[in-house]
Amino acid sequence: MVVSTKGRYALRVMIDIAKHGSDSYITLGDIAERQGLSEKYLESIIKILVQNGLVKGLRGKNGGYKLNKDAKEITAWDIISITENDFFVVSCMNPDGPKCERINQCVTLPMWKEFSAEMEKFFKKYTIADLAAKDA
Questions:
Q1: Which long-range contacts (C-beta less than 8 Å, at least 24 apart) are formed by 120-127?
Q2: Annotated domain spans of the chain
Q3: pLDDT under 70 in the chain at which residues?
Q4: pTM for this one?
């Protein structure tokens, strides 16, 4: 359970758009330059954000990306949950993972479920607006 660079960079992209794109579309090149990240790598991240309805893109001369809803309505969890493919505390909680033979008698599973719920609750406390308001 590690937040990958994809998850961390997706948060940075969303915060950047929230800070700089209130009324206009922001180019991926501008985001990449401000964040010191590869534009090529950000293309794969922005694709995930668009596919999941967090940002919208516009092609053309004045094109770029902007948030699809208010930054106050988007949480860190919204981003992390779509960018992290295996963000499970234990493998038996992954619906696509191997099936555990002891799941019905596992005395630790409730603890892992509670921990996962607390982790989700933690990330839901932080909105993109909150994070964008912080000076770095």
A1: 120/77, 120/81, 123/75, 123/76, 123/77, 123/80, 124/75, 124/76, 124/77, 125/75, 126/75, 126/76, 127/71, 127/72, 127/73, 127/74, 127/75, 127/76
A2: 5-87+126-133
A3: 1, 135-136
A4: 0.87
